[in-house]
Design goal:
The protein has 10 helices and 14 strands. The strands form 2 sheets. Strands 1, 2, 5, 6, 9, 10, 11, 13 and 14 form a 9-stranded mixed beta sheet that branches. A hairpin with a 6-residue loop joins strand 13 and strand 14. The chain binds ligand MTE. The site of ligand MTE has 16 residues, from loops.
Length: 320
Amino acid sequence: MIIRHRKASDVRSHEITPEGVYLNRRQFVQSTGLIAGSLALGDIARAAVLPEAGGKFGAMPTTHSKLDPTDTPTPFGDIINYNNYYEFGLDKTDPAKYAPAFKPLPWTVKVDGLCNKPGTLDLADFLKPHNLEQRIYRMRCVEGWSMVIPWIGIPLADIIKNVEPQGSAKFVRFETIVRKEEMRGQRSSSLPWPYIEGLRMDEAMHPLTLMAVGLYGQPLLGQNGAPFRLVVPWKYGFKGVKSIVRISFVESQPQNTWKVMNSDEYGFYANVNPKVDHPRWSQASERRIGELRRRPTLMFNGYEEEVAAMYEGMNLVRLY
Ligand code: MTE
């Protein structure tokens, strides 16, 4: 893994990716399109990009966005052993224990709704070495803990542009897999399945919004949302829907799972905001996993400069 240590103040992909790589990626995306009508997965194609279990991705451009010197990446062992993934159980250690029963590949994602080119994405078709990036993001869970994670993925905007959303598409809805045989938590009704999340179109197109396929240089493990999950670093962790099988362009705000479960406590926007407390606890500070001290929580999780303009004029206390 080549890590270029630069102090990026912003992560627009054309600024953080070497120009040649960036242009190649755009040309690739434009020339091939991302939609393939449910192609069968070729083992050779898959192996070229998604390494086998225990393998590593090849070198790729990296950015550290808005990190300060105390934002050191959380140890791999913590990232894979302290998880929220109710499909595998309610305890933080359940996902690591039970996710090995989940077999993520092959994987396809249905893209539908208000777009001109609906279809089925095959992970093996659109993951190419030159369209992957490493993004080191600060992550904040609504429960008060945080981590710094070196994700590997592709900007969601690249996928969206290729399917040509229509003007009437105002939101993007994400749906997770239902596979009760492999996901023991789905045999209970702890949550309504499938887990659903949504973003407003401008949030989905924002250059920080990533579809992750790996972390720490290797493919995502089941507990972190293998093989394909959303990462939105300025929002609380519950927006980061895991193991996505369907992306739909819709006119109205999707009913996201946690808002449906308890709308007094969880909203649609879920922007990290130290001034808007959860009804049962303060959001003013957080504990980084691996540290004892609490640190102040930053507005929009420290990504204010990049994202605040999207929420200008909105009442962020009412629209939490
Ligand atoms: N996605 C699905 N499908 N099911 C879940 O239970 N939990 C969410 C989110 N995505 C969840 C999910 C919550 S509450 C958090 S905090 C993050 O995943 C945790 O991601 P991590 O375990 O990779 O840190």
